[in-house]
Amino acid sequence: FDDWTEMYHKLLKYREQHGDCNVPATYVEDHKLGRWVSMQRHYYKQMINGKPSSMTSSRVSQLKKINFSWTSLKRDDWKTMYEELCDYYAKFGDCLVSQNSPDYPKLGNWVCKQRQEKKRGTMQQDRIDALNAIDFAWSVAGIGHWNEMYKELVLFVQRHGHANVPSQYPSNPKLSRWVSQQRYFYKRLSDGKSSPMVPNRIEDLEKLGLAWCVSKSSQKYSDK
Q: Burial of 69 by CB count in 10 Å (0-12 exposed, 13-18 middle, 19+ buried)?
C-alpha cells in the first residue's frame, strides 16, 4: 500500500467504529489520521478551485463512497441544526426557511448551505436521506411553478374525474407535459437516480389518483 491507501484504510476502520468519517483534527488516538483527514479537505478545496493539488478524481470517488464530509462541520452541530429544522417542519409543514428570516436567521443560512453542498456533490448520503425524509426542497426556484401546475391538475380532475391527462391534450398542452414530467421524475426516484420528486409531492399527486404507469391507449386525447 502507498501512504494514501494506508491512511484510507485507517479511515475505514475509524468509520466502522464511529459510524462516520468525521475524525477530529486533534484525534488523540491517532494524530496522523486526524491531520490526514483535514488535509484531504484542504486538497479537495484546492482541486475544485483549479489550483495544483494532490487530490485526484479517483481519490474523491473513494472518499465519497464512504460518505466523507468535505467540510469540517461537527456531526453534533449538524444534528442540532437538523433537529431545529425538524421542529420548523412540524410547525409550518415545510422546510422553506428564508435566509433573511428574522425569527430563524441561523437556520435560514444553514438551509441555504445544505442546498449549496448538495449541488457541489459534497454532501454525505445519510444527510441527504435525512433531509429528504422531511421533504426538504433542494431547489426553491421551481416550487411556485409546481404548485401552480398542481392547481391546474386539480381543476382537470374536477372536470374529468381522473388525473391522467393525455399526452396529447390540446386544451392544456402545458399541463400534459408537466404530468409526463412528474412520471419521469418519479421513475428516476424509483430507480435510485437523482430527482426533484419528493415524498410530499408523491402523496399530493396520489391523492388526486395520478397513475405513475399508463398504457399508450389510455393516453389518447379525450375531452369528454
A: buried
175 neighbors 149 (Cβ within 8 angstroms): yes
At 153, list the grid cell.
391538475
CA 45 remoteness from chain centre: 21
For the segment 144-171, what is each residue's pLDDT rounded down to a tens digit? 677 788 999 999 999 999 999 998 889 8
Q: What's the rounded Cα separation, in Å, for the pair 3 and 17?
A: 22
Cβ neighbours, 10 Å, residue 109: 14
**Is this model's pTM higher than 0.70 or not?**
no
pLDDT tens, residue by residue, 70-103: 876 555 578 888 888 888 876 776 787 877 777 8
Which residues fall within 8 angstroms of residue 163, CB to CB, at 6 or more apart? Answer: 153, 156, 157, 179, 205, 208, 209, 210, 211
Count of beta carbons in the 10 Å neighbourhood of residue 95: 19
